[in-house]
């Protein structure tokens, strides 16, 4: 087995991505960075010379999954060693940032640990690891990592499809008391306009039709426009709308405090901006919102949504919720249920509160019993799911533009996305991936829609 079929100059990297869309983006950038050193991506673990776990620390379960995966990889590394073949194991992302050296202690098979702010140093760290060093890189780098990373590669972008993520902002200064993000992703940083526009143009040239701008607090993005004026996300969206090849723009995740007038107006003025807004509220109780340090009330949130819906009545709202935050009473939870009834969510993500060591929430009194959390989550999810289905049912009969993204399950079928992010199945004779076609919604299943082409 030691005579490898893979020549030394083409090594294979397997990246497993956990957590949010920003991690998906980061995994792609890391793969691009490694390609300069001859690495090609593989989705077959057994073929890999290098395995990277790009990790998430947002909830306890997410972090535990990483350690159990590392246990399995350790066995694989041992088996390989018997055959005289190497396996390099790296942990990147938010667990790497939060745990640092601790990972080397708990998982002896790991060769390198690299936080989200330093993955542009990955190729160099890898060379050191090959020299026998166990590398930990978790400093907040002084240099701009985006300047040190290669732009999205044309061929790889094309292979990744017609939709793409683009990080425009990273980190968070909000310090919600439940959340690790300010500690793992650091302080809020906005990428400069020119860098973002250049990357978006590259994506468009490679055939991407839809770009989702990413940031932990994406609507806090700000920067200097070409005229020197201070720009917000609304202005950036105007600029990106001018890129011809791009047909659709989205952004996520937003904080209610940062929805400014320009951004709200963009939902009225920009046809390319999809009528979809992910605007987490976490709780409908003012007492809990205060304890979470969200810095707005439930009524302010509802009023904000009304203002956005006033300029874009077609807007679908999506949200995040946490049940069982410390001190949450039955009454607080009922307030969350009422808020959900008032807002009507097209989609939502909801979680049991998970203690994150080092965050203020972990030190609070009144932790809620696990079975109470489970009960509340079940009720909330039933309500949210019924709204999601009602939203889908309302779509039946509507005519929409559909961006065709990938082959469907049946031959001749393609799957696209509605403006409201729902997967839509269609028999699309004569159309191909990347086309945007006019369709009529004919039916709604639990998680996707069905449509027929018109015109
Ligand atoms: N426990 C449970 N859910 C959490 N989230 C963030 N931190 C926690 C935590 N400690 C949820 C929030 C956030 C989403 C990304 O994850 O709802 O919006
Ligand atoms: Fe997970 Fe948050 Fe890190 Fe994304 S930024 S990977 S959600 S901890």
UniProtKB/TrEMBL annotation:
<comment type="similarity">
    <text>Belongs to the methylthiotransferase family. MiaB subfamily.</text>
</comment>
<dbReference type="InterPro" id="IPR058240">
    <property type="entry name" value="rSAM_sf"/>
</dbReference>
<dbReference type="InterPro" id="IPR023404">
    <property type="entry name" value="rSAM_horseshoe"/>
</dbReference>
<dbReference type="InterPro" id="IPR007197">
    <property type="entry name" value="rSAM"/>
</dbReference>
<dbReference type="InterPro" id="IPR020612">
    <property type="entry name" value="Methylthiotransferase_CS"/>
</dbReference>
<keyword id="KW-0949">S-adenosyl-L-methionine</keyword>
<keyword id="KW-0411">Iron-sulfur</keyword>
<keyword id="KW-0479">Metal-binding</keyword>
<dbReference type="InterPro" id="IPR038135">
    <property type="entry name" value="Methylthiotransferase_N_sf"/>
</dbReference>
<feature type="binding site">
    <location>
        <position position="176"/>
    </location>
    <ligand>
        <name>[4Fe-4S] cluster 2</name>
    </ligand>
</feature>
<keyword id="KW-0408">Iron</keyword>
<dbReference type="Pfam" id="PF01938">
    <property type="entry name" value="TRAM"/>
</dbReference>
<feature type="domain" description="MTTase N-terminal">
    <location>
        <begin position="11"/>
        <end position="131"/>
    </location>
</feature>
<feature type="domain" description="Radical SAM core">
    <location>
        <begin position="158"/>
        <end position="390"/>
    </location>
</feature>
<dbReference type="Pfam" id="PF00919">
    <property type="entry name" value="UPF0004"/>
</dbReference>
<comment type="subunit">
    <text>Monomer.</text>
</comment>
<dbReference type="InterPro" id="IPR013848">
    <property type="entry name" value="Methylthiotransferase_N"/>
</dbReference>
<dbReference type="InterPro" id="IPR006463">
    <property type="entry name" value="MiaB_methiolase"/>
</dbReference>
<keyword id="KW-0004">4Fe-4S</keyword>
<feature type="binding site">
    <location>
        <position position="20"/>
    </location>
    <ligand>
        <name>[4Fe-4S] cluster 1</name>
    </ligand>
</feature>
<keyword id="KW-0819">tRNA processing</keyword>
<dbReference type="InterPro" id="IPR005839">
    <property type="entry name" value="Methylthiotransferase"/>
</dbReference>
<feature type="binding site">
    <location>
        <position position="179"/>
    </location>
    <ligand>
        <name>[4Fe-4S] cluster 2</name>
    </ligand>
</feature>
<keyword id="KW-0963">Cytoplasm</keyword>
<feature type="domain" description="TRAM">
    <location>
        <begin position="393"/>
        <end position="455"/>
    </location>
</feature>
<dbReference type="InterPro" id="IPR002792">
    <property type="entry name" value="TRAM_dom"/>
</dbReference>
<keyword id="KW-0808">Transferase</keyword>
<feature type="binding site">
    <location>
        <position position="56"/>
    </location>
    <ligand>
        <name>[4Fe-4S] cluster 1</name>
    </ligand>
</feature>
<dbReference type="Pfam" id="PF04055">
    <property type="entry name" value="Radical_SAM"/>
</dbReference>
<feature type="binding site">
    <location>
        <position position="94"/>
    </location>
    <ligand>
        <name>[4Fe-4S] cluster 1</name>
    </ligand>
</feature>
<protein>
    <recommendedName>
        <fullName>tRNA-2-methylthio-N(6)-dimethylallyladenosine synthase</fullName>
        <ecNumber>2.8.4.3</ecNumber>
    </recommendedName>
</protein>
<feature type="binding site">
    <location>
        <position position="172"/>
    </location>
    <ligand>
        <name>[4Fe-4S] cluster 2</name>
    </ligand>
</feature>
<dbReference type="GO" id="GO:0035597">
    <property type="term" value="F:tRNA-2-methylthio-N(6)-dimethylallyladenosine(37) synthase activity"/>
</dbReference>
<comment type="function">
    <text>Catalyzes the methylthiolation of N6-(dimethylallyl)adenosine (i(6)A), leading to the formation of 2-methylthio-N6-(dimethylallyl)adenosine (ms(2)i(6)A) at position 37 in tRNAs that read codons beginning with uridine.</text>
</comment>
<dbReference type="InterPro" id="IPR006638">
    <property type="entry name" value="Elp3/MiaA/NifB-like_rSAM"/>
</dbReference>
């Amino acid at each position: 087995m030691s005579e490898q079929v893979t020549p030394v100059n083409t090594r294979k990297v397997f990246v497993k991505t956990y957590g949010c869309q920003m991690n998906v983006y980061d995994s792609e950038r890391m793969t691009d960075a490694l390609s300069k050193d001859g690495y090609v991506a593989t989705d077959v673990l057994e073929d890999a010379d290098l395995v990277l776990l790009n990790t998430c620390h947002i909830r306890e379960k997410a972090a535990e999954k990483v350690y159990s995966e590392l246990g399995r990889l350790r066995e694989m590394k041992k088996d390989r060693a018997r055959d005289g073949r190497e396996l390099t194991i790296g942990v990147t992302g938010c667990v790497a940032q939060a745990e640092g050296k601790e990972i080397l202690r708990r998982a002896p098979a790991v060769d390198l640990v690299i936080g989200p702010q330093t993955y542009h140093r990955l190729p160099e760290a890898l060379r050191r690891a090959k020299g026998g060093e166990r590398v930990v890189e978790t400093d907040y780098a002084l240099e701009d990592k985006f300047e040190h990373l290669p732009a999205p590669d044309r061929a790889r972008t094309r292979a990744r499809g017609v939709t793409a993520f683009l990080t425009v902002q990273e980190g968070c200064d909000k310090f919600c008391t439940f959340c690790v993000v300010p500690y793992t992703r650091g302080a809020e940083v906005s990428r400069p306009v020119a860098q973002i526009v250049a990357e978006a143009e590259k994506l468009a040239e490679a055939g991407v039709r839809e770009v989702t701008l990413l940031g932990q607090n994406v609507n806090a993005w700000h920067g200097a426009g070409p005229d020197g004026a201070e720009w917000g996300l609304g202005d950036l969206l105007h600029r990106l709308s001018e890129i011809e090849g791009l047909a659709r723009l989205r952004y996520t995740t937003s904080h209610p405090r940062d929805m400014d007038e320009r951004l709200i107006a963009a939902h009225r003025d920009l046809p390319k901006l999809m009528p979809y807004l992910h605007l987490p509220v976490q709780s409908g109780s003012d007492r809990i919102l205060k304890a979470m340090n969200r810095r707005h009330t439930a009524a302010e949130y509802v009023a904000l949504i009304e203002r956005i819906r006033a300029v874009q009545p077609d807007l679908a709202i999506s949200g995040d919720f946490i049940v069982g935050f410390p001190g949450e009473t039955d009454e607080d939870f009922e307030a969350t249920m009422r808020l959900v009834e008032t807002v009507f969510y097209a989609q939502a993500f909801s979680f049991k509160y998970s203690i994150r060591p080092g965050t203020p929430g972990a030190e609070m009194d009144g932790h809620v019993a696990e079975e109470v959390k489970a009960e509340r989550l079940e009720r909330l999810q039933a309500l949210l799911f019924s709204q999601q289905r009602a939203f889908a049912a309302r779509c039946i009969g509507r005519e929409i533009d559909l961006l065709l993204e990938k082959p469907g399950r049946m031959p001749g079928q393609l799957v696209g996305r509605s403006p409201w992010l729902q997967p839509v199945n269609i028999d699309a004779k004569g159309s191909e991936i990347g086309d945007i076609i006019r369709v009529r919604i004919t039916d709604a299943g639990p998680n996707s829609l069905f449509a027929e082409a018109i015109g």
